[in-house]
C-alpha cells in the first residue's frame, strides 16, 4: 500500500511538473497559473492578473473593478445588466491604494496588485484566489530577478560572471588585472591642451602664493596691530563715507501697499506705430490666456490670467492725447518695434511722455522678424543693434522679445507663450501719483437717455453711464471727476494756409495772392490784439476827463489811484517844505519851516546890559540864520568871530572910568565864566538829513532874495 501511495504521489508530482512547465513557458503565467476566467503571474514583490472578457467589451465604463485589502470583484455591464466574473477573497493582503487596472479592448483586463505582507516578509503565492487550485512552489523558479536586486549586488554578480568567462578563456581575472603593473600613461607635453594645463597650474600656484601671503599678513597684523592702524585719518574718513554712501543707496523707504484684497486688473498697453502688429499680438495673447479667439477688438479687454491676477489689454492709438492718457494709467507697456524699419517717431514720443508722468514697466517686442529668414548673419547683427538701442532708451538689460515668425495668420505659439509668462509673473512698483489719486478707466458705456427724447430731438443732451475699475486710492461719492477733452472747443486758425486753387501753371501755384500774405504777431501788436507787459489796464471816463461826470449811470468809475494823482494841487517841493518828521511817538512833529527858525543859545556874562545884548543878539541871529546849513566845524569858527565882535562892542560902549574902577579883575575870571555859561548849540539841520542838499539850496536862494529886498 505504501508503494502504491508513493507511486501515485510521484505521478501527481510529474503531472504538476508538466503542467507548471507549460505555465513557466508563457510570460503571462510565469510562476503562476492559467485558469478558465483569468491567468496570473508573480514575482517576490508583486502579482499581475489578466481577467478574460468578451470581445464586445471595448470601453472602460462597461467594466467595474473593486479592489479591497484582501478581496477582488470584477463585474461586466451588458445591456444594463451586471454580470459578475470574479468575486472572491485573496489569500494574502495587498496594497489596494497602489493597485491599478487597465483594459485591452476585446481581450482582457490587466490588474496589477502590490502585495503588502504582514511584518514586511516576502512570500510566494500558491494561488490567486482562496477557492482556486494551488500550484506546487517546487516547480517554479523562486529566484529574484536582476532588477529586484540592489546596485551593489548587481555589480558583484556581473563581476563574478566576467571572472568566470575570463577563466574559461584562460585570461586573467579582474583581480589579477589590478595586480599587474601596466605601463604608465605619458602625458602630452606639447600642444594647446598642454599649454592650458601649464597655465592653469601656474594660476593655481599663484593662488596658493596669494593665500600664503594673506595668511602671513594676518599673522603680522595679529603680532603688531599698531603697524596696521589708521595712518591717514582723512583718507580713512573718505573711505568710511564712501562705504556708508554705498550702503545708504541700497536702502529703500518702505512703501505702504494700499491695494485692496482684490486688486483691480493690471493695465497692459500695446504701443507702437501703424502696421507694426499691435492688434494681432493682442489677439494672440487673449487666445493664449482664455482659449477664445476674438476677430474684432474695440476698447479695453479684461481677462483672468491667474488665481490672483487680472489683466486689461489696451491698444494705444497713434495720437498725442491717447499716448498721454495711456502713460498715466499703464502698469506695463509692450513697446512694439518693426525690426525691418527700426525705431520710429511714435516710440520716442511715448517714452518722452512716460518719463514725465512716471516711467512704467516697459518690455520691447520685435516684429516682422520673418523678413530675415535667408540672412542669418544680418539677422543676428540687427538683433544686437536694436537691443543696444533699446537699452539706451530704457536701461541696461531691459527685456526684448522676438516674434520670430507667423503661422496661419498668427504669431508662433512658443513666442507668445514666452511673452505671456513674463506678463503673468511681472511685479509692479506702485507709483506715488497713482496711489494718491483715484482714477477710473472706462471700459464700458451705456446711453441712459430716453429713446423718445432722442427721437424728437437728436441733438438733445445725453445721459451717459460709464463703467470701470477704480484704481489708485478709494474714490469718494462727492469727488469731482475730470473727463479728458471736456469743455474744449476748436477756434478758427488765425494764420491758416491758403486753400487749393485750380491753376494751370506751376508758377501760379507757388505764388501767393495779397490776401493770402498773412501776418500773425499778437505780442508785437499785429493781429487786432495788444498784450501789455504788466497786464495792467486803466480805463478813463473820457478824453481829458479829470472829474467824474454827473451821469453816473452811463460813465464808468474812475480809478482811485489815478483820481488822487489828478486831484493834487501842490508841487513836490511845496509838499516837502510842509512835511513833518516825528522822532518818537510822544514827541511833537518837527516841521521844516520851524527848524529854520530855531536859534542857537547865546552866551551870557555877569554884568551886561540888556540893551547891548539885544543888539548883539540880533546880529548873531542874522549870522546864524545864514550859516545854519553848514557843518559843525564851521559853527566853531562862527563862535570865535562872535566873541571878537562882542569884545569890540564892549570897548566902545563902556566908559573909561568904569574900566579903571573895575580894573582887570573881570578878565581874570572870564575863562571860568566862559566855561560855565557857554553851552554849544544843539541845532541840527533835520531838513538836510531827510531831504538832502536840494531843499537847502532853495532855502538859500529865498534868503538871498529876502536880504536884497531888505537892503533896498
From TrEMBL:
PROSITE patterns: CS (PS51203), G_BMS1 (PS51714). Residues 1-27, 170-229, 588-667 are annotated as: Disordered. It catalyses: GTP + H2O = GDP + phosphate + H(+). SMART domains: AARP2CN (SM00785). Residues 609-661 have a biased composition (Acidic residues). Residues 33-129 form the CS domain. Keywords: ATP-binding, GTP-binding, Hydrolase, Nucleotide-binding, Nucleus, Phosphoprotein, Ribosome biogenesis. InterPro entries: AARP2CN, Bms1/Tsr1, Bms1_N, CS_dom, G_Bms1/Tsr1_dom, HSP20-like_chaperone, P-loop_NTPase, T_Tr_GTP-bd_dom. GO terms for biological process: endonucleolytic cleavage of tricistronic rRNA transcript (SSU-rRNA, 5.8S rRNA, LSU-rRNA); maturation of SSU-rRNA from tricistronic rRNA transcript (SSU-rRNA, 5.8S rRNA, LSU-rRNA). It comes from the Eukaryota. It is found in: Nucleus, Nucleolus. One of its GO terms (cellular component) is nucleoplasm. One of its GO terms (molecular function) is U3 snoRNA binding. Pfam families: AARP2CN, CS, GTP_EFTU. Residues 263-429 form the Bms1-type G domain. Gene3D superfamilies: 2.60.40.790, P-loop containing nucleotide triphosphate hydrolases. Belongs to the TRAFAC class translation factor GTPase superfamily. Bms1-like GTPase family. BMS1 subfamily. This is Ribosome biogenesis protein BMS1 homolog. PANTHER family: RIBOSOME BIOGENESIS PROTEIN (PTHR12858), RIBOSOME BIOGENESIS PROTEIN BMS1 HOMOLOG (PTHR12858:SF2). SUPFAM superfamilies: HSP20-like chaperones, P-loop containing nucleoside triphosphate hydrolases.
